[in-house]
């Protein structure tokens, strides 16, 4: 496989990581049954109004959230396709062992040694010891609360699920698509995230897996039909707007909403991939130092960036008070501080761990 092809996926991953970081830098409130933060309620109690700046940032993030995790999962599926073609995993136990150390080990280690301590300092958890233990076990490890690391066990199960299904039903693409769509729909009836998440994202994992087999033809097509980008961008804006307006009051409206949401996700993923492909083929973006820093530390950025937001918000509130959240300039500065610091610190942590040869947690 030539270098340019690998760089297409690398740059897509760079953009996906940037979108994840941005998506985690606007929330003021995280409400769950197992801990959380709520600066919006503090603002309301102190008669501090939310800002237009923050509301606009929230709209931007809602758009990002419509496709950024499916993009991550699809990219993982595409890379898995390359691994399978190279016969990297000839037996299931080899796959399970490799992905266990790559995904499950960092999930438990980072949750225990990093996420829980930072959230505790940020007053995310209940002060009562029994409730604290409950919130940590159920909320963080069982994913019943809020954890940015939910992606790791979900992806681990996606690898195993697709490996088994591909071996058993090789070539039966229609059957697999119907199966994965069914899993997607069923996932919304399951309230246990550690089960529902893999069922929800296996469809996007499979789409990425299949995309790799048509990628070369796809690249030729979009290179010859550049107008497709403009059309896709317009459709993305349209489906994003329509999808939020449709109320799922009956089966027809619900079906329309699901189709709009799927279209938004697919279009969003395509736009990011297209931009990546365009930049790879027309610029030297992969020679830039910043691009390579993000690429080389993308996994570490994902693992360590989000939790820092709780600490940053906690410090800003305790140092400057809730009033700064109600200032247009303050809201913008808070966002930029979160964006810059979470990125820089997570990269620093990733680099430090790599120097210590702790490769499974960075």
Summarize the structure in words.
This protein is 77% helix and 2% strand. Strands 1-2 form a two-stranded antiparallel sheet. Helix 1 packs across helix 3 (52-65), helix 5 (92-121) runs parallel beside helix 13 and helix 7 crosses helix 9 (193-224). A hairpin with a 2-residue loop joins strand 1 and strand 2 (35-38). It has helices at 3-23, 39-45, 52-65, 68-85, 92-121, 129-141, 151-168, 173-187, 193-224, 227-245, 251-282, 289-296, 298-320, 328-355, and strands at 29-32, 35-38. The longest helix is centred in the middle third of the chain and has 32 residues, at 193-224.
Features:
single chain; 362 residues; mainly alpha; two-stranded antiparallel ribbon; 77% helix; globular
